[in-house]
């Protein structure tokens, strides 16, 4: 089928390559002309603007938006809504808030445009192993682009979950769980590193990945990281978050669903960004005040 991709970064660019490898015709656009040119060499059709991209598509057009959530996604969808025709399809494959996707669906329906929110997981490895995709929105639009989705995903790696927002909601919870899993691994490995046995953590990951109940792709990635840098000396203890963990915790609060592990993993990321934490200094001061415990001066 023919489909367009807007946003040719680490995810979007590799998705285009996978689509081309599956025999699809792909029109591409990015603010960086060099990114467009690289994929043109791989067989894509380049466009220098959103207007040109839309004009190069056959009706009903299908355009996949793969840009950062928030203002970049908002402005791109708004511009596409102006350029596209009734029955065309707009797909948001980024990490947008599911409530934004619900709104986009309603607004685009007024223009008789079909909308899909497709939560996409796979990172830089998706080109090789495929992308796990969670879709919500117009069911006819899902069926229209299903050939592309089946090319992008590994076997049984894509599903339609219902009305608009469902895809990004499932992806949001997916990322919240990911936060908690990563935090559990991090704490376990820190404990092993602190113990008196002088453990080779790369060997631990290697063994655990062979039949253990805690084996996972994340653990395979940990094994790769320890093989490359056993002490992780190349890295700073700073962990960012891209929003989904916060949204997951917010929704847990809104629905009165206890999610303490996910919440704690989110707060741990906040702690990683603090240098000389004021809260920890308060703790030191209190211990010194009530018990005369030793403190370290700055």
Summary of the model, kept short:
The protein is α/β, with parallel strands linked by helices.
Overview of the molecule:
The structure is a single chain. The protein has 298 residues and is an alpha/beta fold. 53% of the residues lie in helices and 12% in strands. It has an 8-stranded mixed beta sheet, with helices on both faces. Helix 7 links the parallel strand 7 and strand 8 (158-160). The relative contact order is 0.09. The mean pLDDT is 96.
Topology (SSEs and partners):
Elements: E1 2-6, H1 10-21, E2 25-29, H2 33-41, E3 45-46, H3 50-55, E4 62-65, H4 71-83, E5 89-92, H5 98-109, E6 114-121, H6 126-129, E7 132-137, H7 139-152, E8 158-160, H8 166-194, H9 201-208, H10 217-228, H11 244-254, H12 260-272, H13 278-291
Parallel strand pairs: 1-2, 1-4, 2-3, 4-5, 5-6, 7-8
Antiparallel strand pairs: 6-7
Helix pairs in contact: 8-11, 8-12, 9-10
Search tags:
eight-stranded mixed beta sheet; alpha/beta; about 300 residues; 8 strands
């Amino acid at each position: 089928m023919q489909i367009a991709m807007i946003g040719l970064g680490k995810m979007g660019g590799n998705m285009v390559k996978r689509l081309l490898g599956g025999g699809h015709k792909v029109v591409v656009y990015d603010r960086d002309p060099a990114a467009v040119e690289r994929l043109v060499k791989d067989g894509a059709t380049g466009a220098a603007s959103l207007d040109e991209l839309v004009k190069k598509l056959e009706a009903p057009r299908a355009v996949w938006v793969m840009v950062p959530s928030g203002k970049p996604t908002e402005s791109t969808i708004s511009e596409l809504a102006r350029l596209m025709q009734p029955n065309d399809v707009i797909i948001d494959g980024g990490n947008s808030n599911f409530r934004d996707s619900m709104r986009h669906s309603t607004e685009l329906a007024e223009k008789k445009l079909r909308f899909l929110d497709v939560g996409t997981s796979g990172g830089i490895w998706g080109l090789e192993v495929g992308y796990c995709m969670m879709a919500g929105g117009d069911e006819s639009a899902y069926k229209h682009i299903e050939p592309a989705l089946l090319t992008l995903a590994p076997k049984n790696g894509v599903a339609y979950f219902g009305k608009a927002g469902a895809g990004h909601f499932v992806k949001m919870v997916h990322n919240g769980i990911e936060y908690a899993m990563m935090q559990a691994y991090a704490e376990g490995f820190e404990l092993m590193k602190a113990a008196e046995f002088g453990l080779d953590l790369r060997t631990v990951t290697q063994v655990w990945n062979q039949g253990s109940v805690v084996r996972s792709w994340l653990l395979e990635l940990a094994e790769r990281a320890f093989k490359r840098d056993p002490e992780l000396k190349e890295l700073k203890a700073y962990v960012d978050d891209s929003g989904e963990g916060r949204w997951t915790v917010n929704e847990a609060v809104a629905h009165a669903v206890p999610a303490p592990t996910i919440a704690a993993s989110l707060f741990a990321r906040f702690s990683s960004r603090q240098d000389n934490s004021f809260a920890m200094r308060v703790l030191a001061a209190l211990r010194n005040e009530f018990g005369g415990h030793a403190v370290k001066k700055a």
